[in-house]
């Protein structure tokens, strides 16, 4: 793959083919790889991005897609329960944060860099642990970046900033930083979007937050959300998660 891309870049120089047109084609390729979320696809995406950025280090469209690939490479390693997933998450999370930070500085008026920075911190946290990430000062950075993405375009990445902020406030250590009221506010906003009933993460995250809040009404709603995911989803990760929540109710 790397040899093919390098050869393509040589042809660009020889025949003066516009770099922008090749970058557009590469962006399309990366998006197609992203459509089917597999670790192999994200490994290919990372290789393509890293090679392309050697030739065009300031390409914003490749930067944020590279951060996305790093994020999902780690997330899927965790979901698949790979023996060394913590090491993978630490490595790719850190790399994703660095490239996302470059993207946000290049185009500070767009949500892409801010959003993928925050998600890559989440991946990094899965490697070093939440207290490890907090000790590195990443709590405030994550909050700021997700809030910036929300202000710029809260519907970006299928309303990702809403969902991310809800999850952010719900997973912080309880009695110290967690704020379920804020989490619930963002989850309720996300619940009104078209994506809530199309994906499994929102219902499961909301159900967990409702159980944390406590009370018969909230627990009854959480139960319905989990039962729906278990019945309709083909995603084992979220089905198993929903089952664990039900066991706690």
Briefly, what is this?
By secondary structure, the protein is an all-alpha fold.
Beta content comes to under 5%
Rounded to an integer, what's the Rg over CA atoms?
19 Å
CATH topology of the largest domain: Serine Threonine Protein Phosphatase 5, Tetratricopeptide repeat
**CATH class placement of the largest domain:** Mainly Alpha
CATH architecture of the largest domain: Alpha Horseshoe
Give an account of the 3D structure.
This protein folds into two domains: 1-153, Serine Threonine Protein Phosphatase 5, Tetratricopeptide repeat (Alpha Horseshoe), CATH 1.25.40; 166-249. It is 80% helix and 0% strand. The protein is built from 13 helices and no strands. The chain has helices at residues 2-15, 19-35, 39-55, 60-79, 85-106, 112-128, 130-135, 138-153, 156-171, 180-191, 201-213, 216-232, 236-248. With 249 residues, it is an all-alpha fold.
Features:
single chain, 249 residues, mainly alpha, Serine Threonine Protein Phosphatase 5, Tetratricopeptide repeat, 2 domains
Strand-helix topology:
Blueprint lengths: L1 H14 L3 H17 L3 H17 L4 H20 L5 H22 L5 H17 L1 H6 L2 H16 L2 H16 L8 H12 L9 H13 L2 H17 L3 H13 L1
Helix pairs in contact: 1-3, 2-3, 2-4, 3-4, 4-5, 4-6, 5-6, 6-8, 6-9, 8-9, 9-10, 9-11, 10-11, 11-12, 11-13, 12-13
């Amino acid at each position: 793959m790397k040899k093919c891309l390098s050869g393509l870049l040589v042809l660009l120089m020889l025949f003066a083919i516009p770099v922008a047109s090749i970058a557009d084609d590469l962006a399309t390729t990366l998006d197609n790889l992203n459509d089917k979320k597999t670790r192999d696809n994200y490994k290919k995406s990372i290789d393509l991005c890293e090679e392309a950025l050697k030739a065009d280090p300031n390409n914003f469209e490749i930067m944020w897609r590279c951060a996305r690939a790093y994020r999902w490479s780690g997330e899927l390693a965790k979901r698949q329960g790979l023996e060394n997933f913590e090491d993978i998450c630490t490595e790719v999370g850190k790399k994703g944060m660095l490239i996302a930070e470059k993207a946000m500085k290049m185009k500070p008026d767009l949500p892409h860099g801010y959003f993928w920075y925050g998600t890559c911190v989440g991946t990094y946290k899965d490697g070093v642990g939440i207290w490890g990430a907090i000790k590195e000062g990443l709590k405030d950075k994550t909050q700021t970046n997700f809030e910036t993405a929300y202000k710029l375009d809260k519907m970006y990445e299928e309303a990702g900033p809403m969902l991310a902020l809800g999850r952010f406030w719900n997973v912080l250590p309880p009695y110290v930083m967690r704020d379920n009221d804020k989490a619930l506010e963002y989850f309720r906003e996300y619940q009104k979007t078209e994506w809530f009933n199309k994906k499994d993460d929102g219902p499961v995250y909301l159900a967990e937050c409702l159980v944390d809040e406590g009370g018969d009404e909230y627990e009854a709603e959480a139960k319905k959300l989990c039962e729906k995911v278990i019945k309709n989803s083909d995603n084992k990760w979220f089905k198993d998660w929903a089952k664990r929540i039900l066991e706690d109710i």
